Amino acid sequence: MPSNGLDPIDRKILAELQADGRMTNVELAKRVGISAPPCLRRVRTLEEQGFIKGYHADVDARSLGFEVQVFVMVGLHSQAKDDLTAFEDQCRSWPLVRECHMLNGEVDFLLKCTAPDLSSFQTFLTDELLTTANVESVKTSLVIQEAKDVPGVPFDVLEARLQKTA
Amino acid sequence: MPSNGLDPIDRKILAELQADGRMTNVELAKRVGISAPPCLRRVRTLEEQGFIKGYHADVDARSLGFEVQVFVMVGLHSQAKDDLTAFEDQCRSWPLVRECHMLNGEVDFLLKCTAPDLSSFQTFLTDELLTTANVESVKTSLVIQEAKDVPGVPFDVLEARLQKTA
DNA sequence: GGTGAAACTTGGGACAG
DNA sequence: CTGTCCCAAGTTTCACC
């Protein structure tokens, strides 16, 4: 019962590319212990099968002028399927909303918003989110400090798990 | 009052690399409208100055076997500086905790956790988080659906802002 | 999975505006 | 200081074993 048809080399490739997405293929091949052509074939396969969804530069929001990050908890009036979908579509259209998670419990959605400053977030809040149909309650929490923000998944947790089942 | 000593070409470079971090330098140069050598020089400068913090492959958590994502709201007993720092350090040492944000309001920290399944999250919760000194209250919210999860910052918001101040 | 070879990319140097 | 042109070293990516 392996991960998902992935062998240890595939997982190593994913872990390496998650840590450094601009690594050259020869460097990657050296690290995972095979030669470059089969390594590239594996990477292409992983991309095609959707294990790798893309590659992104990690841009420093603060120094670029995005000073505020806010979590917004949203409760909806109606939780009918179409109404949930309508709200999700709305979220996708708002550039300030970077993440929209549907949660269990009392709150329906958790949004993570990134904005240049408080006033532009306030504008979004009052002019966009609060005027949206079906929105019942909105509770915002400002991020005071970013203590940890690691992209991707914890491969060490996965490897530890696979050890146990092996 | 531009962004941060960045000209429109720099911002275009950042936006392009955020969208596709594996783009070759010649392709990037073509897109931003300059030739390759100065484009590479700009990229290196942006990296050195910390505007680009790194490059990461965006790995699909679900297909890799990370089925659950949980937001955890943590309240601490003492909010003294050293106690806050101690908790942040603790979060950095837990691989399951991918993000740790210090918030304003009634809750002190919001954690985003990624785990293979509910039981391994439960183990983390009971054996790690709940046994941590100074942790007063813990409230967990399971992510039912990921409606939106876009990496990086909204460059279009930034450009719109710069237009206004220009 | 490995090898070799062609096409391309990177990244430096020399130079012009 | 930023852009252009050119060139060697390294990288990607093919066909083939």
Automatic annotation (TrEMBL), chains A, B:
<dbReference type="GO" id="GO:0006355">
    <property type="term" value="P:regulation of DNA-templated transcription"/>
</dbReference>
<keyword id="KW-0805">Transcription regulation</keyword>
<dbReference type="GO" id="GO:0043565">
    <property type="term" value="F:sequence-specific DNA binding"/>
</dbReference>
<dbReference type="GO" id="GO:0043200">
    <property type="term" value="P:response to amino acid"/>
</dbReference>
<dbReference type="InterPro" id="IPR011991">
    <property type="entry name" value="ArsR-like_HTH"/>
</dbReference>
<dbReference type="InterPro" id="IPR011008">
    <property type="entry name" value="Dimeric_a/b-barrel"/>
</dbReference>
<dbReference type="InterPro" id="IPR036388">
    <property type="entry name" value="WH-like_DNA-bd_sf"/>
</dbReference>
<dbReference type="GO" id="GO:0005829">
    <property type="term" value="C:cytosol"/>
</dbReference>
<dbReference type="Pfam" id="PF13412">
    <property type="entry name" value="HTH_24"/>
</dbReference>
<dbReference type="InterPro" id="IPR019885">
    <property type="entry name" value="Tscrpt_reg_HTH_AsnC-type_CS"/>
</dbReference>
<dbReference type="InterPro" id="IPR036390">
    <property type="entry name" value="WH_DNA-bd_sf"/>
</dbReference>
<dbReference type="InterPro" id="IPR019887">
    <property type="entry name" value="Tscrpt_reg_AsnC/Lrp_C"/>
</dbReference>
<feature type="domain" description="HTH asnC-type">
    <location>
        <begin position="6"/>
        <end position="67"/>
    </location>
</feature>
<dbReference type="InterPro" id="IPR019888">
    <property type="entry name" value="Tscrpt_reg_AsnC-like"/>
</dbReference>
<keyword id="KW-0804">Transcription</keyword>
<keyword id="KW-0238">DNA-binding</keyword>
<protein>
    <submittedName>
        <fullName>Lrp/AsnC family transcriptional regulator</fullName>
    </submittedName>
</protein>
<dbReference type="Pfam" id="PF01037">
    <property type="entry name" value="AsnC_trans_reg"/>
</dbReference>
<dbReference type="InterPro" id="IPR000485">
    <property type="entry name" value="AsnC-type_HTH_dom"/>
</dbReference>
